[in-house]
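Case study 2.
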Amino acid sequence: MKTPVSSIFLVLFASVIGSFGAVFLKLGAERLRYGLRHALNAKLITGILLYIGSSIPFIMGIRNGELSVLYPMVSLGYVCAMVWSRLFFKEPITPGKIGALVMIIAGIVSISAGR
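Prediction:
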């Protein structure tokens, strides 16, 4: 079974959506400092919905492709999360983080090339 390019794009798209979910979960979690009564806030709910929503293109992608090729591509979400954390939270990007991102991207490219 070969993995179609459309499945790859669906899984990568799901990873990006999921990484935005992480941003909104963090934004919503800041309100929890004021007590659990703030657990249901718009940002937290948006984060949860984005995570759930990311499963739809993921399921559509894995339906027609090889899981051994597609699932490692979910790690693109880590790359996106690093970019979002810098943009939204001013978190530092250290040389160690850059090295890790290079390895993740190299792994994704290697796996997709062998599909």
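The two ends are 9 Å apart (CA to CA).
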